[in-house]
Each structure stands twice: as C-alpha cells, then as structure tokens.
Amino acid sequence: MNNKLKKALSKSFEAPAPTRKKAFLRSIQKPSIGYFDFVCAQAAYIRKWVWLISTLSFIVAVIGAKFMNQDMLWCVSAFMPILALSILTESGRSEVYGMSEFELSTRFSLKSVVLAKLGILGFSNFVLFCLLIPFAYINSCVSVLQTGVYMACPYLLTIFGGLWIVRKVRGKESIYICCGIAAAVSLGNIILYQSSYVIYSEQGFIWWISALIFSLIGTVNQCYKMIKQTEELAWNS
Amino acid sequence: MDLEEQYEKIYRYCYFKIHNREIAEDITQETFLRFFKSNYVDNGKAMQYLYTIARNMCIDEYRKQKAETLKEEVIYNYSEDNIIEQISVKKALAELDESDRELLLLRYVNEVPVSVIGKLYRISRFAVYRKISQAKKNLKDKL
C-alpha cells in the first residue's frame, strides 16, 4: 500500500480528539514490578534444556545409586561440567546474540538480568547438589565431604574457565569454547578416575581441595568482573 | 510501550467500533485500567491484550446499547490539497464490509503487527495476510 493511500486511510479513520487523555495518563500509575516477580519472570526465559540437564543428571545419579548399586560418584562428578555449561550459556546469551548493548538500555538493565539468571541457576544447582550428594555417596567408599568436593570441583573449574571465556570472546565462538572446556574437564575427570584411583583416594584429596579453592576464588573473581563489565554503559540506570 | 501512542490507537479503534466519543474514551480508559490490573503487564504481549480487552468491551457495549442509536456526527478535518482523494477513500471505505474496514484500520492506521491481529481474531498469520490483501483489493476496486 502506498504512503498516499495510507495517509488518506489514516485521515478517514480519524476520530475526534479525546478530551480526557492527559488527565487519565497523569493519574494512571504503571504498576512497578517487585524483585520477586522480576526474578520469576527471568526464570521463564531460561531455556528448557537447561532444566533438562539438571533433571537428567539427577536421574542418572538416582538410577545408578539406587537401582544399579553402582559407585556413581565419578559419573556424577563428570556430569557436573555439563551442568556448569548450562549456566555459562545463559549468562552469555545476550553477548552471543548481540543483544547486550540493547539490553543495557532496557527497563531492567543487563546487569539485573544476568544477576537474576545467575542467581536462579546458582540456587537451583545448589539444591541439586544437596540432592545429589546422598545418592553419589551411597555406594562410594569416601566421606560426605569428599563426595561434595569431588562434585563441586569440576563444576567450579568449568564455571571459572567458562566465565573468563564469555567475558573475553564475543559471539557464538565463546559458547563453542565453553563446550570445549566442559568436555575437557568432564573427560579429564573420567580419564583420571580410570587411570589412577589415587586421585579419588585420601592421598589425592589435598589436590582436590587445592583445585576447589583455586576454582572458587577464580569463579568469584570472574563473577565480579562480569558484573562490572555489564555496568560499562550503565548511564541509563 | 508508549502509553500515549497506544491510548490514541486504542481510542481510535474504540471510536471506530462504537461511533461515540464519550463511550469510546470511557472504554479506552477502562481497557488500560483492566490491563494494568491484570497479570499481562510486562510479559511482552501488551498490544495483543490491549486490543483483546478493547474489542471485548466494545462488543459488550454494542450489545448493551443495541436499541439506542450511537451514531454521532463526525467532523472530518480534510486538508485542502488532497480533499478529493480523502473523500473518495472515505466513500470507498463506507462501501466495504465492517470486517475489511476493521482490518485496514488495525493494520495500516494503528500499525498492529500481523501476529497480533491473528491472535485477536484467532486465525493464522497466513489467513490474516489473505484477508488484508482481500480488503486492500476491495478498497482499490471501490476507489
């Protein structure tokens, strides 16, 4: 339809000017969204496969520990980087699809969105950890503390490496590299378990603790830097 | 969502349906109040819900007032340079079906996306495109 006809149409449908518009718009208060509602709204935007991976890792642990009477610790531990990958893909989604600059100027800034998503996934993964530890512990010959450390270490190591990549590499490449990191940590875990039982013994535990502390400090540092990076253009807030 | 712009558009739509300035404005304001009271705010479907509420309220009003005449004298404000074209478009529109006129108003005057129109009428995007092109053809035939 040409512009001339469009204009003529607009004129033909023209209604008499509203008389109470200004007073109404002044009186109307757009309801503000609460923090809880905002977090719930963000939870809806997390992709389904992220929740699927969490469910799958739980099912694997339950089946292995409860029905197959197998030591599932190494398997659950190897699954942790995949779980971490789900957080990484969500945290870097705006960058990957080139929407970060746009989201910096939206009603809810990129920083709040990233924080909300990281918070939701972090909390859900923590709950999952708490549920997985008993199942991974049942048939293993290590203590509960060791079980927790064996599971948390590959998870945090992947998060640390992944967040560094998400910050440094732009676009989809960052996700591919994160996949590589997750696969490397997961495979490395399996190979170490298969080749040397020392790693999963009392003697090797000090290495796990060291790696856990290193990953934890690295993850906290990367999270801080990532939040700072999303604030770069926060002139609109 | 630009509240002021949407107010104008919803009001124009209500006026098209009701032909009464006061009632159209009442419905427009009630539409926004209902919209803000609902859970639809901030879920990304604002236009769809606004038009659905407005349309339903216009239908209710139409049923309520069926016996009464709602026609109001419309004052047209034509500019001198294209007065003939505007009159002919107005005349052609008057000869079209109500549904064709509504579609043209929504799509070309209020610039409602095809997906929203589809959801408003509960028809597919393809059907909306087909109906719009038919309405355009009918309008051009009458011109």
Any key phrases for this structure?
A: 237 residues; mainly alpha; B: 143 residues; Butyryl-CoA Dehydrogenase, subunit A, domain 3; 7 helices; 72% helix
Largest sheet of chain A: none
The proportion of strand residues of chain A reads under 5%
- The succession of helices and strands of chain A, N to C, reads HHHHHHHHHHH
Overall number of strands of chain B: 0
Count of helical regions of chain B: 7
What's the N-to-C terminus distance of chain A?
41 Å
Low-confidence stretches of chain B: none
Shape of chain B: globular
* Structural domain tally of chain A: 1
Strand residue content of chain B: under 5%
By DSSP, the count of extended strands of chain A is: 0
Structural class of chain A: mainly alpha
In DSSP terms (H or I, runs of 4 or more residues), the helix count of chain A works out at: 11
Order of helices and strands of chain B: HHHHHHH
Q: Return Rg of chain B in Å.
A: 16 Å
Whole-number average pLDDT of chain A?
A: 79
- The helical percent of chain B reads over 70%
Poorly predicted tracts of residues of chain A: 233-237
> Overall mean pLDDT score of chain B?
81
**Helix-and-strand structural type of chain B:** mainly alpha
Q: Which oligomerization state do the chains in this entry correspond to?
A: heterodimer
Can you describe this structure in just a few lines?
The complex is a heterodimer of chains A (237) and B (143). Chain A has 237 residues and is mainly alpha-helical. Chain A is 75% helix and 0% strand.
